[in-house]
Amino acid sequence: MKLYNTPMPAPNPRRVRIFLAEKGVEIALVDVALQKGEHKAADHMARNSLGQTPVLELDDGTHLSETAAICRYLERLYPEPAMFGRTALEEAQVDMWVRRIEFQLMGPAGNFWRHAHPFTARVVVPQYKEFGEANRGASERALMWLDAELAGRDFVAGEVFTMADICALSTVDFAGWIGLKVPEAAGNLRAWHARVSARESAGA
Ligand SMILES: N[C@@H](CCC(=O)N[C@@H](CS)C(=O)NCC(=O)O)C(=O)O
Asked: Which ligand 1 atom lies nearest to the CA of residue 54?
């Protein structure tokens, strides 16, 4: 098995790396350089027709894309420690939070990145700057919403660290890197961020 990966600050491959680090599993990483356009080259497009990373390649040559799906697959291979919950309710709660993080947090960050950030101006043509900038407010509202949700619990989906925290950590870090910082007033979110960033896996 190998993972077609892109290093920091790319948020999606980092999720798989953190996930593997939490499991204590090492797999071969093959870097795909987005800034060189390697993700849109024919060999990578054959692995993922959307030309994105991460992609997990199985030993029989099967390719899996979509971070949540890759991690679901890895969870079945390496069940401990559980990252997607243990009971039916916990599993549903983790799925609920993964989707909420992807849509509510990653949505505005992705729109801002594609339409307002100078790094993507060369590849996103045309950029709708006004629309992109409008996502600053949406991002801040989403971060404050998550802050309120985190009052009274240590982790995004409950009392244990899960895939939902991995998604939220990579998203909050990526958003900060592109200029969408966690508001000063978001005390619960800041405390959660310090808590999850202190885990060894956060460096993956
Ligand atoms: N929904 C996909 C998103 C993957 C994605 O957007 N990956 C980024 C790197 S973090 C990428 O390849 N971007 C280049 C592109 O979309 O063309 C997932 O969950 O894996």
From this structure: 20
